[in-house]
Amino acid sequence: MDALSNSYIPACFMLFICFLSIALFLKKTSQAIDYWLFLGSFPSVVMNSNRIPDWFTEVFTSLGRGSFFVDGPIFSNLKYFVTCHHQNIEYILKTNFNNFPKGPDFKQVFSPLGDGIFNADSESWRVQRRMAHTAFISAEFKNLISNISRQVVEDQLVPLLVHVAKTGSTIDLQEVCSRFAFDVNMNAIFGLHGNYLSTELPSNDLAEAIGDVQEAVFFRHTMPMFVWKLMRLFRIGRERELLKAVKTIDAHFYEHISQKQKHLIQGVKTFDLLSSYINEELNRTKIPSLPPKNDDEFLRDSMLSLFVAGKDTIASGLIWFFWLVSKTPSVEKKISEELEVLLSSKMGQLSEYHEWPWVFHSDDTNGLVYLHAALCESLRLYPPVPINSKTVLNEVVLPDGSLIKPGTQVLIPFYSVGRMPWIWGEDCLEFKPERWMDGDGKLARHENAAKFFTFNIGPRTCLGKDMSFTQLKAVAAAVLLNFHVEVLEGQHVCPKPAITLHMKKDLQVKIHKRVI
Ligand code: HEM
């Protein structure tokens, strides 16, 4: 026995020395920030997991450069390259796009979205992109979005705010924005009235299930893959909730798909995204590169991806905009003045504008330069998609000289890009719509377009950019023309750790009728 332990001790000691030598070598050669022996940058990631976008911003600022590495614990094989370097971003998202796919891990983490456009790479993505693009650029679809936005604003949002103003009560504006975006999506995708945004603020199991899916997918980001896979296997914790939520979503989506198919067979004419995909699907047998799924599954994945793409982004874009405007009275005043000029020109033409509350047509809000600039400015500081992620296929040297190995996860924090003094100037943290305008009061598009990544750039640029501005302007114009939003004092406003940039807590506001 003694002889046995005598031989074990030196062996263990040797093993430890080897392990220590490897760990020391890795520490010496690693370029990662905050590197701890054995643990890599993991302790810093854990400590900042509640505030990743702000942490990234602080690291860039303290390093004074636009890129850094984050390593996982020893032998975890986790390596991240984080960059807000302007030329790197162009190179990754545009110039060498094919070398930076989303990758298989992305698809596993976002598995509730199935084979929809967000999870697709290569040929499957190309085909789906073409389908979505065809639907989105049609004049019919653009009209649809304008009409729906106006309708939901006029019939649901404004009456709710009138009610809140009259009763003098408070309301969570974040909830209101989220309900607005849900109703617009129900209408645009399925041609149905969501009625989630009404004075009673009813519950809605589909909206709640979509929220639960997003929470669970974010939760997956916070732990190693094998952990959440085990949780899924044993149906525990968030994974259990996720399975339940997906079941609810499937029940709704398959029901809507089946109803729509019946209507189309009966010759009922409707125009919405689902109808246009069903019509397009008739040609699908000619497109062998799409995932081998039956038609309904493909429609379910596609519609859910579009729903998620269009719902939370709009809700996020709206809430941060209203919060920034409420904190900056000079901007609120300029937007209101611009709206009043438009209103008085409309009053002279149309009798429908003679009575409060007023709601513009989308065609009219298109020309609102200052409002457009204020929205861009808010989307710069609070991009609804705060971080974009890619994987690396082949080893490359990026424009800033960083060498990136295959398998590295590339993170592009749009949130930090909007907050770098070397990109936006020393006043980068100020909410200043004027930076989007030239001396003649026109939009200075070219100057900013090259550094505005909020809607992504390159082949995977957001397909919903134009329709986003239609919706954002419809809501912003109606709210700021008719009301003053008073944010209640004492609320600590900060981003919630999530895939989309929401506020951590409610935003409680009072609504006052504006006197013109
Ligand atoms: C303020 C609102 C919005 C912002 C900031 C935004 C931003 C983005 C970003 C950053 C991406 C790239 C995501 C990635 O590569 O993983 C993206 C993609 C996309 N967005 Fe948006 N989005 C917004 C609204 C919308 C809306 C309303 C729709 C309509 C359904 C939409 C549809 C899409 C689609 C289909 C893609 C996928 C493009 C592709 O992978 O080829 N987006 N968006």
Automatic annotation (TrEMBL):
Keyword Transit peptide: no
InterPro entries (UniProt xref): Cyt_P450, Cyt_P450_CS, Cyt_P450_E_grp-I, Cyt_P450_sf
UniProt keyword Metal-binding, yes or no: yes
Cofactor: heme
PROSITE patterns: CYTOCHROME_P450 (PS00086)
GO biological process: isoquinoline alkaloid biosynthetic process; lipid metabolic process
Transmembrane feature ranges: 6-26
Keyword terms of this UniProt record: Heme, Iron, Membrane, Metal-binding, Monooxygenase, Oxidoreductase, Transmembrane, Transmembrane helix
Membership in a protein family: Belongs to the cytochrome P450 family.
Name by which UniProt lists this protein: Cytochrome P450
